Amino acid sequence: MKIRPLEIPEVLLIEPQRFGDERGWFSETFREAALAEAGFTRRFVQDNHSFSAPKGTLRGLHFQVDPNAQDKLVRCTRGSIVDVAVDIRQGSPTYGRHVKATLSAENGHQLLVPIGFAHAFVTLEPDCEVQYKVTGYYSKECDRGIFWNDPDLGIEWPFPAEEMTLSEKDKNAPLLADSAPFFVY
């Protein structure tokens, strides 16, 4: 399992190794000790699984605040997505910046999105499934969001806005500048 930091070093790209033969392949997708070696020692408590039918489905930018803030370990198990993490830690040298990675069933890559980051993904093809582990239980009271297309964030999405499918919640999320500082660096 190869683990490397992205341009914002707290966000980790995880590349599990696959061992294949004529039957297919085998891959170890989670190893607590490997993450601990990379500096991540929190415990995952919940697994989530989403299905998005249309290409261009965008989910995010989401996060949870204390006492149920969540680290997320995200992988795409069917299809492919562009996965995005935005630093929303007030005072961070990378505040308001983002990193992104393409995760797919084919490449098996995963993204570790730490607490203090908003998270979103957009599907690159129809019928995508995304699974992710989290370190905090879901709480409606702690659930928050940032507007997916906030111009201050400068995220280049793979599709124009009119070709994307979003929830009403995501369409109406506040800009980062209009949000309380939920996390302090």
From TrEMBL:
GO MF assignments: dTDP-4-dehydrorhamnose 3,5-epimerase activity
UniProt entry keywords in alphabetical sequence: Isomerase
Xref: SUPFAM superfamilies: RmlC-like cupins
Site (Participates in a stacking interaction with the thymidine ring of dTDP-4-oxo-6-deoxyglucose): Y138
Pathway assigned in UniProt: Carbohydrate biosynthesis; dTDP-L-rhamnose biosynthesis
The enzyme's E.C. designation: 5.1.3.13
Catalytic activity, as annotated: dTDP-4-dehydro-6-deoxy-alpha-D-glucose = dTDP-4-dehydro-beta-L-rhamnose
NCBIfam families to which the protein is assigned, alphabetical: rmlC
Protein role: Catalyzes the epimerization of the C3' and C5'positions of dTDP-6-deoxy-D-xylo-4-hexulose, forming dTDP-6-deoxy-L-lyxo-4-hexulose.
Assigned protein family: Belongs to the dTDP-4-dehydrorhamnose 3,5-epimerase family.
Protein name: dTDP-4-dehydrorhamnose 3,5-epimerase
